[in-house]
UniProtKB/TrEMBL annotation:
Transmembrane segments: none
Family stated for the protein in its record: Belongs to the AAA ATPase family.
Keywords: ATP-binding, Nucleotide-binding
Name this polypeptide is given: AAA ATPase central domain protein
Domain AAA+ ATPase intervals: 46-183
Gene Ontology MF annotations: ATP binding; ATP hydrolysis activity
Cytoplasm recorded as keyword: no
High-level lineage: Archaea, Methanobacteriati, Methanobacteriota, Methanomada group, Methanococci
Record organism: Methanocaldococcus vulcanius (strain ATCC 700851 / DSM 12094 / M7) (Methanococcus vulcanius)
Length: 264
């Protein structure tokens, strides 16, 4: 439990507006968490598990953080492969502890990234630790109804290779949402989100078109913006290396110069 509390819990500052594009997906996720939280007749059962699948870097982790951020819920961010590799024999105990803590600190969002690392369709190449961790996870997902009637604990899982998942996993995640690469409109939004506070003097349409052609993901776009911002900073602040000689307290008093980003 201490391991879970110290290592797997994050505070999520992410809001829905921090996510560019994915309008339909955002609406589905909002729907899911709102219906989970509201008082309702017994026959209406909210989704307990949602599977997000799609290419890398398209915002799956971001969406899970936004669910937590919008509810001010406790956010558990678990990369399946890192739990099994670090805590070989203990990995299934960690899952049990994780759900105990999640119920204690409800509302909670549990995000299991790379769930495919725990299973393959043919059961080949999966370690005993992964197998045990998966079986505990599935038991927790099944048993939840009885243990935490009034608690909101939503499990979101993510994979880039949904075809590797077996039926045992898929059936626990009846709500499956495809997270696509950004289209032109989404690309423009993601560029704006990642250049907040900096004036843009660029042909956003032209750049977005090129990015879509090259199949840029949200992560690629973020990196592109970061690169452009660094180049601009280097250009405008010729004295950076002089400033490197100053102590921290002096540096805190100075302001970094910026200017509009241009096409170059
Ligand atoms: P992976 O499958 O590789 O784990 P992922 O789908 O979980 O990737 P994220 O970690 O959510 O991707 O995205 C990586 C980064 O890319 C985010 O931190 C964010 O800065 C940026 N990003 C990705 N998609 C979007 C988006 N739709 N809007 C804004 N930023 C995005």
């Amino acid at each position: 439990k201490n391991y879970v509390k110290n290592n797997l819990i994050q505070k999520s500052p992410v809001k829905w507006d921090d996510i560019g594009g994915l309008e339909d997906v955002k609406r589905l996720m909002m729907e899911t968490i709102v219906i989970s939280a509201l008082q309702k007749p017994k026959s209406i059962q909210p989704w307990k598990g949602v599977l997000l699948f799609g290419p890398p870097g398209t915002g799956k982790t971001l969406l899970a953080s936004a669910c937590a951020g919008s509810l001010d819920a406790t956010f558990f961010n678990v990369k399946a492969s890192s739990v099994t590799s670090k805590y070989f024999g203990e990995s299934s105990k960690i899952i049990t502890a994780l759900y105990e803590v999640a119920r204690e600190l409800s509302p909670s969002i549990v995000f299991i990234d790379e769930i495919d690392a725990l299973t393959t369709k043919r059961g080949e190449g999966v370690s005993e630790a992964s197998r045990r961790m998966l079986s505990t996870l599935l038991t927790e997902l099944d048993g939840f109804q009885d243990k935490g009637k009034d608690l909101l604990v939503l499990t979101l899982s993510a994979t880039n290779t949904p075809w590797d998942l077996d039926e045992a996993v898929l059936s626990r995640f009846p709500r499956r949402i495809y997270i696509p690469l950004p289209d032109k409109k989404a690309t423009k939004e993601i560029i704006k989100i990642n250049t907040k506070g900096i004036e843009l003097n660029i042909d956003l349409d032209e750049i977005a078109e090129k990015c879509v052609e090259r199949l840029y993901s949200g992560r690629d776009l973020k990196n592109l913006c970061q690169e452009a911002i660094w180049n601009m900073i280097r250009d405008v602040n010729k004295n950076l290396y002089e400033l490197a000689k100053l102590p921290y307290n002096e540096l805190r008093k100075r302001k970094l110069k910026t200017r509009a980003l241009t096409n170059n």
